[in-house]
Write a structure and sequence with these properties.
single chain
Amino acid sequence: MVVYTRADCALCDEFIAELTQQLRHSHERFEVRDVDADPEARRRFGLKLPVLTLDGSVVCHGRLDAAAIERLLAR
């Protein structure tokens, strides 16, 4: 899982905190990437941050979708 964020993004910080909390009992981990450091990601996601992806597909963006994360963990 990859979370695309931007520096000084309070919503991104909140998203990461919620995702960390939701994954606390699982073995799943995620990587945080700065969207501005990746021209392709910046083009793809623009201002639609934060974005959680899995294998290149968007899982959720803006607000954490707890139900989507639960479905991922159940697979």
